[in-house]
Amino acid sequence: MRQRRKAREVALKVLYELDILNTDVKEAIELFWNNFEAHKGVREFSSLLIEGTWENREQIDSLISSCSENWSIARMSRVDKSILRMAVYELLYRNDIPPRVTLNEAIDLGKLYGSENSGAFINGILDALYAKLCRKYPAQDVSSPQPP
Fold it and tell me: pTM score, two decimals?
């Protein structure tokens, strides 16, 4: 599983870049891999996360906003926002990943790359969002809610 952690770290870096520069997603991924080496599995999983997150960011941002009292997306740090976007993408579209894994990975990334409060901030928003998804789709398997 270490490869998936590394892939999430890569995805975070590229999503952060995309948020700042607003470049083409494929070009950003290519630029990253032109400068860094990684195992094929890391490349593939990070690309899935990056492309999926970026393509669905409007819906993802709307969901994040609905669960973040007093914090608009524009006020969030870019690191926290990128981590949240990736985690919400995983919760909505990657039912091969247990939600607990997604939540724990996002919190750990926040602690590693964000501010001293990022882990708690990310935890609070993702807990609220996951609870909201579970209430919205009670008939489905709670471990794999589908996108709204």
Answer: 0.90
